[in-house]
């Protein structure tokens, strides 16, 4: 790391401090001076519609009785999908490893399409579109780049993907990619090569486009759109794309859209984008609390592959109570909310060997700089779809095993001088929802 960047890391990212008993801790910066604590954000006017849906005056769970149309963008994987993946992998394995997507592509061999609708919707009830975080009783929690790296094997440091910044080095007109197929299966049939023949450039790019749209970003149209061509071409050419930040930004977009749809009179429909990532993250934080288990042992050495086996198969409206109670039980921050800071982690060696903050090696500084540094992340494959989001790891410092300053609220709030420090596993009382649920869910709804 360059000397200037290292100075920034030491002065703004990790801020060491000691307690009276001599114990050393670290804040995740940047640090906001005390004279600014009462600042009200005038750029983001107060908007009660961004509050989590759980704060609504009435919650009608009957809206979520039929979840088929809510999750119709996630069709089950067919045998032809796996056959095509294995055919292309046999030839392109070394290329994928060089591009740092080999482990990530392994997840497409598992049931990423499998969801627990009640678990997902229960979590979305707590999503705040202003802070881009879940408001649990113990304060903000959210998937971070560390979680994505553990689940997918994607590193946090690579080149940022701007949809219009990458040139079309291989003309799409030169490739025999067919766009008039109406289903994913038809797209596979049209582009998979014959057994025993080489994997052409056209087939590889077509596979990557299919993988991005059908296995990663889940387009609502259930087709492979042309706008994935530039990203697929960049990966084919071994460009160092930071897919982890692109994936996290896309999850933010997904959660914003899903949360906003809860306020409509009709239930949300056709949710898309990487909700599979939310499912695996929830499996990780609920694994011990809800005793999620599986008898299936995945062959892939990746945390995400193991987590796919934990998704509950039983779907029932009654499960809402179980998941809401589980979320409300997080009255203090616990190790369940930082599931990937542990020595038994499975995953890529570069992360598994350096996933303890206190044992970080000098060679891992760049990686942890990516995990812990504030950044602007971008979602969208086309210029008109681009959305910018702040990546704010300082809001989730305890998920990295660090101490945490209480985040400055976006709205004005009296008395924010009180209790300004979060220490790991220290109880943080916060007004939340359980009484609200018992008062505002009608007896008819609770019996659904």
Automatic annotation (TrEMBL):
Pfam families: PMD. It comes from the Eukaryota. GO terms for biological process: meristem maintenance. This is Aminotransferase-like plant mobile domain-containing protein. Residues 101-412 form the Aminotransferase-like plant mobile domain. InterPro entries: AminoTfrase-like_pln_mobile, MAIN-like.
